[in-house]
Design a protein that fits this description.
six-stranded mixed beta sheet; 12 helices; 2 domains; alpha/beta; 10 strands; binds Fe4 H S5; binds zinc ion; 315 residues; two-stranded antiparallel sheet; 49% helix; Rossmann fold
């Protein structure tokens, strides 16, 4: 297989795009495409300050790398979840995020959940009894809360995450199976800012996961190979496997599924259900918007944990 641009031996063959490229041209193609998506979906401009949520994995580190190569002002945010699970998952991912920032002379904000909220994610999850024995519900809630808080408090215009096409197609598949109108309405490359909430963007949403792996490897980015141990057996991994089977038989199916959805959404297919975002109230504790008056779900969770801990310590 030869590179379409220079005729040298190709390093990456993308059947779904009928495109093969050598290392040099692949490493040019990825940022060029990203810039196209940023412009097409009006994600942000070169004057805006971007906060990249960095997990230490290939997608978020590659995203940070690409944005910097494109000349954007992008700082990182690492959230220490306190997940060890026998492989020092959080410790190792923090080390890699730090290393990347130091190597490229970039600013990385670090929020350690245990230091800020008294307990690491698995313990917060256990005490609050949310999420049927898995910490993912509490983890997702906490990450969303912290990302918003840091973006708002430190004056970032936009929050960027490294979700790739495989992630987005899996979420879309799940929401479509249950026809979750509100979720479908809100799923897209850009979630506009609302009162107290930063704009959220996903510049890598049109890249296949394997394209991002190829980018990270060819760029020599050191990232954590292991997935979070709690991801094992999750529904989203199951959906990804199903979509991979489909993609195997019909190259491009995953991308078509996602892009046709975006077109349908654009044409107003889900517009009538747009009422859930209208009635937001600021949380009485943290000020972030919430659907019911009073405390937001995150503050309620923390309050519950604090109550239980004080009961235990008073015994
Ligand atoms: S939610 Fe669950 Fe992830 Fe949090 S506990 Fe791990 S798998 S990191 S995306
Ligand atoms: Zn080439
Ligand atoms: Zn709150």
């Amino acid at each position: 297989m030869k590179c379409r641009k220079c005729g040298e031996k190709a390093s990456v063959n993308m059947r779904q795009h009928k495109l093969a490229l050598c290392k040099e041209h692949y490493l040019e193609w990825v940022p060029e495409q990203t810039e196209r998506f940023i412009e097409k979906y009006e994600m942000f401009s070169h004057d805006e300050k971007i906060l990249v949520a960095v997990s230490g994995g290939k997608d978020s580190l590659s995203l940070w790398d690409i944005l910097i190569r494109l000349g954007y002002q992008a700082d990182g945010l690492y959230i220490g979840l306190g997940i060890d699970a026998g492989i020092n998952y959080s410790g190792e991912s923090h080390r890699l995020a730090d290393e990347f920032a130091n190597e490229h002379n970039l600013k990385l904000h670090v929020v350690d959940i245990e230091k800020e909220y008294g307990q690491p994610i698995p313990v917060l999850s256990e005490i609050s009894r949310r999420g049927h024995g898995k910490p993912c519900a509490v983890c997702g809630l906490t990450k969303r809360h912290v990302m918003n808080r840091i973006a708002r408090d430190l004056g970032y215009d936009v929050l960027a995450t490294g979700h790739n096409l495989d992630d987005e197609a899996a979420v879309l598949f799940g929401n479509t199976l249950s026809w979750s109108g509100d979720y479908l309405l809100r799923q897209g490359p850009v979630l506009p800012s609302a009162d107290g909430l930063a704009r959220k963007v996903k510049p890598l949403c049109r890249f296949y996961e394997r394209e991002m792996t190829a980018y990270a490897l060819l760029r020599g980015i050191e990232y954590i190979y292991e997935e979070c141990p709690f991801a094992e057996g999750s529904t989203s991994i199951y959906y990804k496997e199903i979509l991979n089977q489909l993609e195997n038989d019909r190259p491009g199916a995953k991308l078509t599924f996602y892009l046709r959805f975006l077109e349908a959404r654009q044409s107003g297919l889900f517009a009538e259900r747009n009422d859930s975002t209208l009635h937001l109230h600021p949380c009485t504790n943290c000020g972030q918007p919430t659907s019911a008056p009073g405390l937001c779900s995150f503050c309620r969770m923390i309050e519950k944990v604090a109550d239980k801990e004080s009961i235990v310590s008073n015994l």
